Every structure is written in structure tokens, then in C-alpha cells.
């Protein structure tokens, strides 16, 4: 399975940066995949006095329109496991719930 994934996904770039507004770091990698692009990464920071650690994966189509994202990790003691998906009609779903306030948006802001 690992060799198949390597053949289909081409690593394009890796990034590492630190936040300037508060303590935190992020590391990610950009992959070219058969259906577009994939961004995989990990963010570690402090929010509202709580230590946070999130792994994320964002898939976009060849025009850089976000298709879906998976975010897992923790915010303090709370575990996070979120699936976000953009429908063909431009609606966003978090789990099964439609997010009307962001309908029509083409990108996701993990911040």
C-alpha cells in the first residue's frame, strides 16, 4: 500500500513556520495527487490558555477549490475529530450538518 501511495502522490514541497501572534508552530507538506492537490500537516499552539495539537489533511481539485478536510487532535482535554466537505453545489458540511453561513466559499480556513 505504501508504494502505491508513493506512486500516486508526488511530494512538491514541505513547509515549517512559527506563529507570530502567539506561541505555536506548523509543519506541512504539499502533494500533487491524481485528482488535484493534498496538504497534510500538524499544528501545535496555545489557544485560550489551552495546549492544542491538530493534524490536518486538505484535498483540493486541480483549480485549488477545496473538496474536503479532516482535522483531528486536541484542544486542551477536548478531543477533536472533524470532517468537512464541500458539496458539488458549493455547500459546506461539517459532519452531516450544512453550514449555510459559508455556502459558496471555495476555500477552508483552518484558523
| Radius of gyration of CA atoms, rounded to a whole number | 15 Å
What is the helix tally? Answer: 1
Q: Helix/strand-derived class?
A: mainly beta
**Net shape:** globular
- Please give the largest β-sheet: 8 strands, antiparallel
In short:
Helix content is 6%, strand content 59%.
Structure description:
With 111 residues, this protein is mainly β. 6% of the residues lie in helices and 59% in strands. It has an eight-stranded antiparallel β-sheet. β3 and β4 form a beta hairpin. The radius of gyration is 15 Å and the shape is globular. 7% of the residues are buried.
Identify the notable features of this structure and list them briefly.
111 residues, mainly beta, 8-stranded antiparallel sheet, 1 helix, 8 strands, 59% strand, globular
Q: What does the secondary structure layout of this molecule look like, with pairings?
A:
Blueprint: H1 2-8, E1 10-18, E2 24-33, E3 36-47, E4 50-60, E5 66-75, E6 78-86, E7 92-94, E8 97-98
Antiparallel strand pairs: 1-2, 2-3, 3-4, 4-5, 5-6, 6-7, 7-8
